[in-house]
Design goal:
- The protein has 389 residues and is an alpha/beta fold.
- The protein has 15 helices and seven strands.
- Helix 1 links the parallel strand 1 and strand 2.
- The model has no long low-confidence stretch (mean pLDDT 87).
């Protein structure tokens, strides 16, 4: 604990039946403990009076777990700690698992790491709603960050306090534990699981999770995080990679030399090209990432080729769409390429444009996809010859 300047942070609310046992178990290992009494209305305050060796924060009214954790983080930083291991006070976590987090931090490749306890959700005493909620949360964390974890809801965690301090965190209740790990991952913090034991003793465990309101809050948060991930985080990360490596090296490593088969790469090229030319302006990124995920295609390649409609090329895409539309509909329109970007001009030719846009998107997708497949197949064969000597 002292080596990494780490403390134990215990947010608690109306867990008088288990709080003393949890604190006594922690005190066998360290006195670097901070408890946040989140406005408890039971005997919590009386219990804490006897623990004068422990740092304490008392809220006059219940604010929620997120608020309690943020207050604890701020206090821990002011006391000079760099890390905080959070543990719930309802008795489900085992104090003897504290060294698991410290060992992970000691043996890891980076000190900018956030470790989350991974519970055995197949354990017989784990409630069904907890298992379902965890699976649901794991999926959205993967969608938002690109990283799959076994457990994203366990409250037994190690936080890098100085990195968490950099984040803008807004949620006050249980959803905070989702917000903080997603934003930490977006900000470059390694988020990993470590194995911990779990106990669900229904005779003493008190859960304050309200299924409908809290699940609704988590769902709203995930909706917002998905939007931010699609429209900002994923494009930002892609641009950073391209800038760091250069366009040529990026294409070689992430497109040409990627482990996906030539067929999968070609389909990803076709998908990106189709979406990029389609008339869904403002939604290209959302559509291409969503389709790439559900079709199990290469998201990076699909997104890269969806940028066929970047600003310098937009007038040519619009012009080609109108020409294709006139050919299919059999109409004649009078326009110039200079005024195609004017909304009033485009509205006059909306039907022609939409028909032509989809047609051009399909033609371009087939063309680029076919060329990509032929080129990538040839390169794969050449690479196989070289590798075989």
């Amino acid at each position: 604990m002292q080596q990494f300047s780490c403390c134990i942070l215990v947010p608690t609310y109306n867990n008088e039946g288990t709080l003393q046992r949890v604190l006594d178990g922690l005190l066998e290992r360290t006195t670097d403990i901070l408890v946040v009494n989140d406005g408890a209305t039971d005997g919590t305050a009386a219990i804490l009076k006897s623990y004068t060796q422990i740092h304490q924060i008392h809220f006059p009214k219940n604010k929620g777990k997120g608020s309690a954790l943020q207050a604890g983080f701020a206090k821990a930083l002011s006391l000079g700690y760099d890390y905080a291991i959070t543990i719930d006070s309802d008795g489900q976590h085992f104090p003897e698992d504290v060294p698991v987090f410290l060992e992970a931090l000691k043996n890891g490749n980076t000190k900018n790491a956030l470790y989350i306890g991974a519970r055995n959700m197949a354990q017989s005493d784990v409630p069904g709603k907890s298992s379902f909620g965890n699976t649901f949360s794991n999926f959205w964390f993967w969608f938002e960050t690109g990283k799959w974890l076994k457990d994203t809801q366990c409250g037994y965690r190690l936080y890098p306090l100085k990195e968490i301090e950099k984040l803008r965190l807004y949620t006050p209740k249980f959803e905070f534990e989702i917000e903080v790990i997603v934003k930490a991952a977006w900000n470059g913090t390694l988020v990993e699981n470590v194995p911990v034991k779990i106990s669900y003793d229904e005779t003493e465990r008190v859960s304050h999770f309200r299924t409908v309101p809290d699940f609704t809050r988590i769902s709203i948060l995930n909706t917002w995080l998905v939007i931010v991930a699609i429209f900002y985080i994923k494009p930002r990360d892609l641009i950073r990679k391209i800038k760091k490596k250069g366009v040529k090296k990026y294409l070689q490593e992430n497109v040409l030399q990627h482990d996906d088969s030539p067929k999968k790469k070609a389909l990803s090229i076709a998908l990106g090209t189709f979406v990029g030319i389609s008339p869904f302006w403002g939604f290209h990124t959302l559509i291409v990432f969503t389709l790439a995920v559900f079709l199990k295609l290469n998201k990076v390649i699909a997104f890269t080729f969806s940028n066929v409609s970047i600003p310098p090329l937009i007038p040519f895409v619009l012009y080609g769409s109108l020409q294709m539309g006139m050919f299919l509909i059999g109409s004649e329109l009078s326009f110039s390429i200079e005024n195609l970007t004017q909304p009033s001009e485009m509205m006059k030719h909306l039907k022609t444009y939409i028909v032509g846009s989809f047609a051009l998107a399909m033609v371009a997708a087939v063309l680029f996809g076919t060329i990509g497949y032929l080129v990538l197949t040839r390169m794969a064969k050449k690479k196989m010859v070289v590798d075989n000597g």
